[in-house]
Fold each of these.
Amino acid sequence: MSRYSKVRGWSEMIREVLMTQRMPPWHADPHYGVFSNDRSLTLKEKRQLLSWIDAGCPRGEGPDPLEQAYLETRQSSAEKSDWTLGEPDHILKMCQPQQIAANGVFPYVYEVVAAPIKEDVWLKGVDILPGNRSVLHHCLVFIKYPKGSPWEKENNEGGLKGCFAGYVPGYSPRFFPIDTGKFVPKGSKFIIQLHYTATGKPEEDDTKVGLYLASQPPQWELKTKSAFNTEIKIPAGAKNYTTAGEYRFDKSAVLYELNPHMHYRGSWFRYILNRPDGSSETLLSTPNYDFNWQTTYRLADPIAVPAGSVLRCEGGFDNSSQNPFNPDPSQSVVFGEQTFDEMFIGYFSFAESRVPAITVSDGDSEGSAD
Ligand code: HEM
């Protein structure tokens, strides 16, 4: 939108993407939840934009404000760092840039990087800077707590049960919510998982991870966990194959973010919070899930979760030929890493009281850290 004539030139396409609900990219049903990063337009805004296009995009008087804004943005972004949140305190780098072949299907790449920190620290944020967005499909970062430490049982290196940080299409970096942080004990390592998809020409990628130190320990520890189900077997052609996964909160918590994850056959996804008092609340419903937009839905008002609550994720897959994204309706599909396989994972970020930081009980480690 660098000048009026450009927007006018795009106006018919703007009408089309608004009418077909391709833009703005936002998939939450407005009946459930309020989200601080809601990108949707109100009905009034949509009407105003469409009426302006219908009227032939009248220009108005005076200098073009878009031209001025564009010049200013270009000037300020040239002066800014590549890191949206500013220069990190520490940067995790791969041993060497990854070389990605022109064609093929690639297994995930894993790089293990020692934390460049000699003491226990709290982070106020983590950012991932993709080296080459055209070929990097996603990047997840896991923390590997030191061997023999009380946190070792929390290690989780595949992404199924949560992650330390992640970059996916639609990602926008930001610092952790106020008074929360992620803990990195000394001696920790980070595992960087990279998934590449071929572009038709050889590519190089040098993705980096930025760590931002908190100036003092926060009140709450932030965690990213998930409710998932790997036991999925979607028959060929099935129009609405449903599944569900659950996560039990053993400690009281405050919920901040929700991030549904399925692949191309993903059709709809819901998060339902069942509290121990018997009450139940739908926190998020995406009736038309879109794999190309891996949105993290940030709750405008974080939700208090009493101990004993169960967060239930429900979802459906459309493996029929009516799903335009379906790679092959004639195949039955099971859980797997590639986008032509399927996944069912409902990620969420929540804060738990920090002290003691984490001491692991003898029982089931998943969610039972106390
Ligand atoms: C009123 C709001 C918006 C309008 C009218 C709009 C309009 C458009 C149009 C006309 C296209 C080109 C479509 C094509 O060539 O097929 C497009 C593509 C795109 N837009 Fe938007 N957009 C809006 C909001 C957003 C927002 C908020 C984001 C990012 C968060 C976004 C990200 C993209 C991307 C990544 C593409 C290229 C991928 C694609 O074609 O699906 N747009 N948009």
Amino acid sequence: MREPALREELVRACKVLYAAKAAGDGLGGHLSARLDERQILIKPRPVSWWKLEPQDLILIDFAGARTDQPGQPSGVTEWPIHARIYAARPDVQCIFHAHPSASTMMAALNIQMEPLDQDCASLTDRLPVLDNGAVSISTPALGDEAARALGQMGAVLLKNHGCVVAGAGIAEVCVAACKLEKSAETMLRAASLAKLPLLSAETRSAILAARKGVESGSISQERWRMLQDYYLGRADA
Ligand SMILES: [Zn+2]
């Protein structure tokens, strides 16, 4: 995708993530896309997720320095999450980091995702947790730690802090980020009603086996269009 189209798509993604509450209260976090081998297009911290315009997005290099306004601070203290995951994962083109309440609380309470519904099932056994003492990921070494914790997965929870979702494109990341927060809300609700774990090992295995191979890239694209339609009123999206 060329830069102008990428900026438009990232702005729509920020608005959907905010409207869907996947970006928490919108006071922290960022969404980025890999622009080329040298630059990352990223949402700057002080701009609203909802009122963001394509020209508000900034460009940084893999050392966190502005390339669109050299010498100016980016204001994105957790840029190493993005830079080091892109460096470790050539397949990743889009990264989301925020502090949404349900997934953050789920990790803080050591609640494991169980396949209670289809969304939860798609994240069960695929949601590592990085427990680094709730330190902000503001150095390359900490960024490497987050990249290692993510491994080849699509999301990692940062204990007492937030979450990171990474994927091959904006559609995949937005769909996964919305699903993560919804599934975490489901698990918190379930944990308030019954003792964990909720499912027997047999039931859990049977559900996961039945769901093998269900997710695909085309489903992400379809769901991304539906999310835009629902939250932005873009029937033509
Ligand atoms: Zn953070």
Amino acid sequence: MAFYQRKFIYKNLKRKITTIILCVAIFPLIFLGETIYYRFAKTYEEKIEDQIKYRTRSLSDAVEVFLRERTAILATIVDTRSFDDLKQQENLARMFKVISRRTDGLIDLGVIDSAGQHLAYSGPYNLKGLKYFQQAWFNEVMTKGKYISNVYMGYRQLPHFVIAVRGYSNGRGWILRATVDSDIFNQLVRTAQTGMSGDAYIINKNGIYQTAPRFSGKILGKSNIPLTLFGQGTTVAEKIKANGKAKHVAGTWLKNNEWLLVITQDVGDEKGGLLTTRNTEIIIIVFGCLAIIMTTFFAMRMIFNHLEEVDKGISELNDQLIQSDKMAALGKMATGIAHEINNPLAIIGEKAGWMRDLLDEEKFQESENFKEYEQSVDKIEEHVERARKITHNMLGFARRMEHRLDDVDINNVLNQTLELLQSHAQTSNIKISKDFQSELPIIASDQSQLQQVFLNLINNAIDAVEKDGLIEVKTRKKDSQIVVAIKDNGPGIDEEHLKKVFDPFFTTKETGKGTGLGLSVSYNIIKKLGGIIKAESKLSEGAVFSIKLPIKIPDKK
Ligand SMILES: Nc1ncnc2c1ncn2[C@@H]1O[C@H](COP(=O)(O)OP(=O)(O)OP(=O)(O)O)[C@@H](O)[C@H]1O
Ligand SMILES: [Mg+2]
């Protein structure tokens, strides 16, 4: 499988694994977040409802206690003092003074006889002498014994209400009544008006405000809250306001179901904490997801880069193996061909020599075609020589080259090679620069064969550059290898040719100029020395041939 095909497979695999990991990690995170939030929101909402219920219940208790306390004060007076005693104006005034010192909210105190006549009065108004016999509340106190009125304006044009308690004197009923300042009462209820939107107020069973609401409406105005909403105990309902926002409305009946205490609060106001939690959770999930995505991509990239690297190594090794196979097969064929051609070549060469000898004879020299004969024989001999060189090379290529191991200093071998080529390069104005790593280890290798390889490579580079160019020869020690790189700024090698440069007889040079054996011979030599030779190039960007040789330390002699 070609490397690029595997690259495609890896890309696919990488995409699949990344998607699976992301799905497996991110979906549960979001699901978990949502579930936790859902549970939390439910509990939170229950808590909100409980809280408003609790607040309503405590306030209703406080209001009931307020009323009960003041009623109890009046009842105690009625039970402990006689009618005759209290109907005396100064006695009543003294009593009012004592009460006012002990409790707040009472404005006045009055004694009414069984005929409804206001006999004594202590307070800011002149109510003495007024008759209450006709009034509904008078009869109610007389029959029930205790009475608390609704809030009304009265003479003072200030909202207030009345508490009255009945006593008995000589078998006849009489009444002690007091007025409650509704301001004090208002203050008590107002303590439950919390937050930006919280309201608390009391309405009577006709929907009339007994205390001032915080929003929309005033004391003694009519409330539009539907009273049927509220049953026994404390009821909580959710209502949508005119502006579309939801609010909680909680209510408890008090004063024997005559008054309704109402507490309202915007749901949004109460859910502030929930919203903060939601935002925090979203931030945590978003950051969590980002961290997972980044880690996954990073890890995948690392793993697959490593895999591709390993694969590239394997692929290169594979290429080398294929190349070796090709060489072996071609080698065998080449030996056969070389032998077959060598014999006819020898005969042609011998016959050409014989023809030259004949041409020396006088009669031939006198022939008018003598010059053409001589040139033809020259050409035959030249081409026989060239063919012999090729067969010689072919045999050399195919032969199992036995190599001897010398102590080789690679820099030295390169220097010697460059000396051989320097003048040839200079005539074409080609500069050869050296970048050698000093103190390269001496290795056990075959000096003359290495020289042949370097010669081939540098010659190729000179041929490629043609003239006015630069060839760079570099040596480095890398791990357990010595790397030699020969780089030129010639025309480079296109992708198609790059695959074939090490093939025997591959040449782009014109016939007669190159045999196409230089690189394949070099390849064989380097392989036998345990190294690797590689060509890298892009068209019009020059070429780099690099050789990696194992650092084999020579045995001590
Ligand atoms: N440095 C280089 N720049 C561009 N092409 C190169 C370079 N080296 C080799 N080649 C290409 O590789 C081919 C094969 O090279 P190789 O050395 O095997 O044979 P050759 O140089 O053509 O012939 P010979 O080595 O027998 O003179 C060359 O013909 C050339 O096309
Ligand atoms: Mg060559």
Amino acid sequence: MQESVILKTLRLARPYWPLLLGALLLSAVASLLSGSVAWLVKPVLDRVFIAKNYHYLKFLPPALIGLYFLRGLVTFFQAYLMRMASLKLSNHLREKMYAKLLRLPLSETSHETMGRMVSRVINDTTMVEPVLADVFKTLTLEGLTIISLVAVAISRRWDLALLSFTVFPLVAVGARQMSKKARRTRHHAQQEIANLTHRVAESLQGLPEIKVYQQEKTLLARFQQELRAYYRYLLKVTKYREGSKLIVDFLTGVGGALVLTYGGFLIVRGVISPGDFFSILTAILMTFTPVRKISRAYTSIHDASAALERIEEVLSYPEEEGGPRKAFAPKKGITLAQVSFKYPHTSEWVLKEINLEIPAGQTVAIVGPSGAGKSTLVSLIPRFYDPTLGKVLLDGIDLREFELGSLRALIGIVSQDIVLFNATVYENIAFGNPKASREEVLAAARLAYAHEFIEQLPQGYDTVLGHKGFNLSGGQRQRLAIARAILKNPPILILDEATSHLDALAEKKVQQALETLMRGRTTVIIAHRLSTVKNADLLVVMDRGQIVDTGKHEEVLARCPLYRELYHSFARERKVIPLKRS
Ligand SMILES: Nc1ncnc2c1ncn2[C@@H]1O[C@H](COP(=O)(O)OP(=O)(O)OP(=O)(O)O)[C@@H](O)[C@H]1O
Ligand SMILES: [Mg+2]
């Protein structure tokens, strides 16, 4: 499993192969430099210490300094390249996931999945970083170093080298077994302490019972028993830990003796020089650090493996899909044909067999009590959701046949919950049309009656809104959203209670702006006010997911009791008090 994480990560990091290759080459150079340190021991010993040659003595210290400096330099760049590759990789994953998130269908984005997505985009990608930056880096650098050291030792005298390389790892393995035992025993000891703590707490709580049933002696006996267990475990820990040291010391002695005997024998017989012997010994000692580093590098890989799996899961989510056709401004209109709808993972029908014609260039006003399904109905037009049954058609063509981008380009929305982004007022309006000039943005703000209040903000159009930014009132938000829609200048408009937060004066102004905006456009407006309803070409009354009546205001008023009720509340309050139906 651990190898597969490294392989998977390497596959993902394929675009950065020049960096990885560079790092690998540098690792090779660094490992050769380590090897040459062990190699140098022989001439030092034989020529300087034994033959007492001054010429070599002069030459060696700078060589040693040079070697180590070079090695430091090379490992520095190796680490740097690896880090570059791993940061590029994790940022690339973040980018891919963020792009995925933006293309996710709304039907798949509950609050819960969103929370998880956020953590995945930010945290999980961070956990993948060490796979390249630590594990792979250490594996290549230290792995090659070990190989190079072993090669040096073997080239000096192969059988002595092999003898040493088998004896010392054996010692290490033995020591590890013991320390594992010690760890397990320490775990038992910790449990025992927990038991003791629990016992004391429990006895204090149950003191009346203990006294009445005169259990003092039994409990004390049990406590003593547990104390003894604790004592035994801790002694065992010491036994294992110190014992392992003892064994390691002993084995090191035995191993050393073996190596020394055979090495000494070879030296005395003149087969190898003392330099050969110490060169091998140095090589062995120098492998200890790389071995330790490699075993430590593996610790972060478990988290990375789980994180990588979660990232892959996100990247495999289905995306919104459109069709091949380019959408166009409606000439006939938008039709809802036998549309029924349930939200995903729910069982209740929110829309039931809706048939509705929204003629091109006209305004359809939808009214109905809260929860009737008005917002849901209009959310089908930009395909935030698709009907569970039935179809939504644009000039007779199913919306699913259109390219999503081209369809949404036709639609302007002022929704019930207006989201302002963490950006300036200007940018929040320009969101409607990023290509607009400054004049156009200001003109849109003026038409939406937003210009005056924006000018009064601390930094005017450059005031930063949203998270940690300036907070606007509901009415101000709505006017910004209207300005956004005006700037987009779309053939289809969806207005969801677009003016419900405005005071009487602002409402009148925005109403005028909206009327200019709506002229000649296909508009669906969820209406809560008398004037909108009266001016609409068609009025649709909804209740509990169904259309209960449609027609002109007067006709519907004459025959629909629900509309009469709503109408009176419009007239009385100017704004509707949502009638809660359950
Ligand atoms: N994302 C969602 N997931 C599940 N159910 C939802 C979701 N959004 C709305 N509903 C449910 O669908 C029904 C219709 O909601 P909708 O928002 O369309 O009503 P509305 O007519 O716009 O009401 P209001 O006038 O209060 O805005 C309600 O019962 C609501 O609880
Ligand atoms: Mg609504």
